[in-house]
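ok, trying the design again with the full structure, not the truncated one.
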């Protein structure tokens, strides 16, 4: 049975994210994702014992968000949309940038900045890929 996709406003897949609270409670792999974050974003020093996210669609008053100041989330909520992929301007300048397939290959195989295993740990963060899939399934151009 295929897992139902749970998207964040920008298209991240919460259901695949290793810091999404339900995933942490089921199988805490925050150490692995924090190690990958450190390789991919050297100035980011996440604490694996503290990093957690309820998902940006969580409506609870005490919700914990990975990035409370996320511009994509603010834009989606302001426009009354559910996801960036629903916007007529998708993808726009504030949509989270991510390297394309060739850039990822270069960073892993040539520059050795991270590994394919790290890339797999970060699969939830491929916002453009996930939003493109969502748009295709929803019949959007």
């Amino acid at each position: 049975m295929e897992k139902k996709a749970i998207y964040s406003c920008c298209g991240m897949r919460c259901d695949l994210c290793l810091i999404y609270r339900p995933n942490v409670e089921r199988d805490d792999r925050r150490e692995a994702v924090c190690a990958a974050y450190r390789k991919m974003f050297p100035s980011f020093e996440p604490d694996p014992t503290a990093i957690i996210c309820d998902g940006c669609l969580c409506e609870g008053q005490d919700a914990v968000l990975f990035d409370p100041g996320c511009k994509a989330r603010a834009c989606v909520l302001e426009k009354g949309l559910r996801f960036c992929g629903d916007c007529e301007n998708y993808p726009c300048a504030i949509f989270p940038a991510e390297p394309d397939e060739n850039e990822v290959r270069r960073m892993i195989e040539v520059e050795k900045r991270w590994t394919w295993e790290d890339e797999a740990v970060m699969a939830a963060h491929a916002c453009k890929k996930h939003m493109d899939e969502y748009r295709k399934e929803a019949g959007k151009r």
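Keeping the full-length input from now on. The helical segments are 21-26, 30-40, 71-79, 101-110, 116-121, 127-138.
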